[in-house]
Amino acid sequence: MTKLTLEDLKKIKEEVRSSTLLREGGFRAKITIHMGTCGIAAGARKLMTAVLKEVEEKKIQDVMVTTSGCAGLCSREPMATVEILGNPPVKYCDLNEEKIKEIFLQHVVNGEIVEAYALARGSESTY
Amino acid sequence: MKTYRTHLMVCAGTGCVACGSLQLRERLAAELESRNLSDEVQLVITGCNGFCAEGPIVVVYPEGIFYKKLTPEDVPFLVEEHFLKGRPVQKFLYTAPSAKEKVPLMKDIPFFQHQVLRALRNRGLIDAENINEYIARDGYAALHKVLSSMKPEEVIEEVKLSGLRGRGGAGFPTGKKWEEGRRYTSFPKYVICNGDEGDPGAFMDRSVLEADPHAVLEGMVICGYATGSHQGYIYVRAEYPLAIHRLNIAIEQARNYGLLGHDIFGSGFDFNIGIYPGAGAFVCGESTALMYSLEGKRGMPRIKPPRSTEAGLWGQPTILNNVETFANVPSILLHGSSWFASMGTSGSKGTKVFALTGAVQNVGLIEVPMGTTLRKIVFDIGGGIPDKREYKAVQIGGPSGACLPAPLLDTEVDFDSLDEAGAMMGSGGLVVMNDMTCMVDTARFFTDFSVDESCGKCVPCRIGIKVMLNILHRIIRGEGKIEDIDHLEQLGQHIKDSSHCGLGKSAPNPVLSTIRYFREEYEAHIIDKRCPSLVCADLVKFQVIPEKCKMCGLCKKACPSEAVTWEKKTAAVIDLEKCIRCRSCIQACKFWAIE
Q1: Contact between B265 and A64 using a beta-carbon 8 Å cutoff
Q2: Is pLDDT larger for residue A124 or for residue B252?
């Protein structure tokens, strides 16, 4: 391998940092995919994959992607909750891959709630 | 780069590996695979997390949830609940000894709360075997800054201004040593990293090397540039296989990136590092003995001057620093000397890593600002003394150190205050002792260690410490004379004054400090022929005091030789014919009812 320059160092730092930043806290938004048995059965895993793909492609660093259990409304699964720091969380229901992508771009990235898919504001919060 | 939503930091310091963290990791990997989570959840092997008492440890990010004492059998449930369904598993969380409720987040656990990580800044946060993760945490940025924009003199000035003092124990100002090393113009010059950590109960250097080997390498290269050296050696104990393994990987990776070898960063500066596993002699931690050992000779100290900076390894100028000292260097150069000096006391800047062991709840590796009180270390971070026992003393600095009693708990720990108290920083071992510890016996233990490890070159150390040990043995057997105490003090002082190297000069410290702070225990042994802590078996009668006996029968259960007769609602009786004086009953009794 050839010698490292400062640019290489910076490049490695940025690349790896985007993946290790997760360990340092400091998130602007959190998106929770509800993964109870009902959610998984209704296709929540596909949502998760889609969200992670978006995060990866758009090189997003300040969004926490996490799972939680059944949201209690099993008939409307798959569900997801989006929480922008300082704002009440918003629950979305009856999702699919296209919808979650739209929510991710519009709500998580741009901060505008996608009312068409939204169920309600407010949520139990996980830590 | 692949993006993961969750990172599992599995501690693989020696402590956790011994508790089975590698098997745990394998099971985690298999379980994540079978649940199709391998693409979403990343498994990372880290160096020592520090909270060794609770191992094996797994920390889950982004939440920062701290799981303790996990076994492979716990894995399927954990993976299903937390990583699939997002519910942290209560039963694997940490509970503080004093409180009932569980503490899920690492940052809320008192053990971690009071620590300030500088030398250990990357512990548990990076994969120690992946140079990219080190670079992501600003690794090698200091080296680049130094090589591209600073003159060697400026580097030395910066280190001097920071107030960094050698972390190996003596506390010699690092910048001053480097300056001296630079002054001599005989080449080649050498940089040596001293990783020959030999104090009983100390594992600071091992943890730094295991958790963040690149920090040490970077510090060494910077030192080489500042002092005009092109070759470094790391002298590390052969008993630290994991540290050596990770160092080898780190050196290999750094070479591949051109961060070691010829023309680093295209600056024209060359530096190489080699590893030398030491065979495990305590005296080889002494710098001149270490250099002889490195040359393949018998490890024995020599008379100074000349100092090593003038004539060290193979008679050439050599700059030797401790592992932790080197690990502090990159951040000083990156953030500036005033950043480093902003923490600590007037004479000791920055932080210090301690290995906290003994009779304390939270055994582990900690890093605190210089000037933190012993009370805070033992009670806030260490969680106090377990089993409702009383604090008696803390042994600091290993066989060269001292035992500090309760009235000194508010001592602010730095180089100078410890010196005043008759102790020394040493490399940072802290052994906490409870009221079940006999101070005479403790002094005997450390003196015994020094006798074993004395290289035999000078008389005061070779014979003097042995004489002290014989006197201690006599006192412990109940054959002590009252003048023995003064004799020990005089002899100890002579040995301190006339020994050749640091080992002999500090070997009487355990005896002198215990006489200074616990004289009454020596007197009890000698005059009353009694060991107040019931440790010295020759001075224990092994009789049950009926008034104190609560008739619980714990002593009978503990006795291996069926010497205790006990029935419900009667006081126990020990048959001295059958008693083997093993002290199991004394340790089992909660009421001090056996004397």
Answers
A1: no
A2: B252
| In the block, residue with structure tokens 């080898």 | B248
Q: For chain B, say whether A116 makes contact (Cβ under 8 Å).
A: no
Distance CA B419, CA B5 (A): 50
- Signed CA dihedral, B64, B66, B72, B77: sign only: negative
Q: Does an H or E element contain A100, and which?
A: helix A97-103
Hey, what are B320's tokens?
């030797």
- The total of other beta-carbon atoms located within 10 Å of residue B573's CB is 16
Per the omega criterion (within 30 degrees of 0), is the bond before B407 cis? Answer: no
CB proximity A125 to B under 8 Å: no
Neighbours of B497 (CB within 10 A): 9
Chain B residues in contact with A49 (beta carbon < 8 A): 39-40
> What is the CB neighbour count within 10 angstroms for residue B535?
18
User: Are A17 and B136 a contacting pair at CB < 8 A?
Assistant: yes
**The dihedral sign for the CA sequence B223, B228, B230, B236:** negative
Nearest to A13 among B9, B104, B136 (CB): B136
pLDDT at residue B522, rounded to an integer: 96
Q: Which positions of chain B have pLDDT values less than 70?
A: 1, 98-99
Q: Give B169's DSSP letter.
A: T
N-term to C-term CA, chain B? 67
Helical H runs in B204-285? 204-211, 213-227, 241-256
Both tokens assigned to B32: 């994540």
Mutate which of A16, A34, A74, A100 to disrupt the B interface (most B C-beta within 10 Å)?
A16
Q: Which two tokens stand for residue B123?
A: 């512990």
**pLDDT for B75:** 94
Query: Is A20 touching B (CB cutoff 8 A)?
Result: yes
Q: Which of A2, A6, A32 sits opposite B144 (nearest CB)?
A: A6
- Higher pLDDT, residue B488 or A109: B488
Question: Which DSSP string do the residues of B545-593 spell out, in sequence order?
Answer: -TTT-----HHHHH-SSS-EE--TTS--EE-TTT-----HHHHH-SS--
Q: Is the pLDDT of residue A124 over 60?
A: no
Structure tokens at B67: 């799981």
Domains of chain B: 6-112 (3.40.30.10), 131-341 (3.40.50.11540), 351-434 (3.10.20.600), 439-526 (1.20.1440.230), 541-595 (3.30.70.20)
**Selected residues 65-94 of chain A with any CB under 8 Å from a CB in chain B:** 65-69
Q: Does B141 touch chain A (CB under 8 A)?
A: yes
Tell me if chain B has a CB within 8 Å of the CB of A28: no
How big is the A-B interface in CB pairs under 8 Å? 112
Q: Catalogue all structural domains in chain A, each as residue range(s) with its CATH number.
A: 27-121 (3.40.30.10)
pLDDT given for residue A6 in this prediction: 82
Closest partner CB to A15 (pick from B1, B87, B137):
B1
- C-alpha A120/C-alpha A73 separation (Å) is 12
Three-class DSSP category at B14: helix
Nearest residue on chain B to A17, judged by CA atoms? Answer: B136
Beta strands in B190-254 (DSSP E): 190-195, 231-237
Is B339's Cβ below 8 Å from some Cβ in A? Answer: no
